[in-house]
Predict the structure.
Amino acid sequence: MSSDDDIMLTDEELRRRKRKRRRLVILLLVILLLVPAGFFGARPASNQIKAWQARRHAQRAFAAIEKEKWEDARTEAVAAYRLRQTEPQAMRAVARFLSRTRQPDALELWTQLARTEKLTRDDLHDEATIALMANEIARADATVRELLAGKDAAPPDWLLAAQLSINKGAPGEAQTFLDRIFTDSRATPREQLQASVLELASARAGSTNPSERETAAWSRLEKLSADQTAVGLDALVVLAQRAVSPSTQPQGAPGIAIVDLANALEKHPLAKAQHKLLALDLRMHADESQREALVGRAISDWKNADAGGLSALAAWLNGKGEYQKTLDTIPLEKALQSRDLFLQHLDALGALDRWGEVKQLLSSDRFPLEPVMQQMYLARCSAQLGEKTATQNYWQRALEAAGGDLQKLFTLAEYAQKNGNAEIAEAAYNNAAAAAPKLRIAQDGRLRLAHASRDTKKMHTVLADMLRVWPDDPAIQNDEAYTRLLVWPAGTEEAKREAAQVEQLAEKLMEREPASLPHRTLLALARLRQGRAPEALRIYENVQVSANILTPSALAVHAAVLEATGHHTDAVTEKDQIKVENLLPEEKALIEKLL
């Protein structure tokens, strides 16, 4: 119904008023619709923006990684992950950065990403590489199999497969993959270099014709060393390191005189301080009488270099035992330029037994170090100064400063073990394992310490823990069963039943990897524990094993089997190859009649 005021309006005025009212109604309806839409849509819109920003940072991280600008890569990867942790590209950026900087934490990120989307071939390469580094053989095996199953398998995949085979103790299988690389025209010089280095490792691990394979590998490295590229420089370094090794006579690599190697290193356009100092090592190796002159030349050439060059010089001089010359050439004020230089300065002081000065420098904070590293060095100083209480306090503070940081815990564990503090080393590895139970490197550290202390029961406990985390890993299955047999009291009916169960496991493992010496050793011990020595001996029939892969454990079991089957002379010969101090107590008991 119209109001009284509307009666006085013309038809045109009424139409305009109705249009105005309709517009107001429509506007109100739009507002009412937008309010809830804004309320419920604000978060998705914000998430989309964050996802886009995370992807942008991730792309920058990828670019920095390719250029090996690690600080930039870390900054961008962390920024991406903080913006949106569920964004696949953000996870990929962090995982790739950790993988390329050889940090085992990457494995957890690859696992998370695989739950979100299918991993690319580049992802699988990084995952397999870091799994091999962390000694997670089962995981590396699964990833490499996936790579090889693809139709586009190529030299990078075969490199990983060869490395995996070497790690599994199957050098013959490794050689098959390496041969594919050497005959594939797609293989880059870098891949040819890596394959040649792996071929050397494969030959040393017991390939059919090690001398022939090694000669071929050195020949390939020789050819690659002629390139004026980074690959050529790396090949020269491999050849030079072989030439200066203690077991090498001063004639250089096959076909290259040692002086020619030195000249090539010095003249290479990409050579830096460390390469030219390696060239001086070659000259020194060729003619030891030139040592003093060459040391003087090194000091003259690099005493005014930048921090990187000075660090290389300090490490070189310390490596030669020229500690006083390190201090004279690079006094404290120069050493304060970088952390590496400062640590080299401390090492030189320590080597000269000037521990009081070392402690004073560390306590004065002349050069700020990470708290963990500072406390570690102070612990070592106090130990050298005979301050027992202070030593333990510093070690404990170092452990507390490491907190749950895996890299710091690993650094502390290695340093403590090197300096004879097994208790702190074990605590650091235990903390790392508690923080990341699925990180193989932490569990391997615990295992190494238990083995170093010759504590078989502790070894079995650690291996049992590992088996719960990686139940399908054949290496862990093998070693857990082996230590279980060792610690189980021999001669009882329960021990025989346990050995029978282990025998079944060992047979399955050998079916999968017939060339594995550890699996063969496990099977032999299981049968020996059941009083079936002749059957244990048959395991070794028609088996040729390179001396390079024979372990004290394998030799001890074989010697015990030979003795139990009446081959006393052969058993004694086998025993003579064993360094008895490297055996576990239970392994010594196996051959006690021969000792």
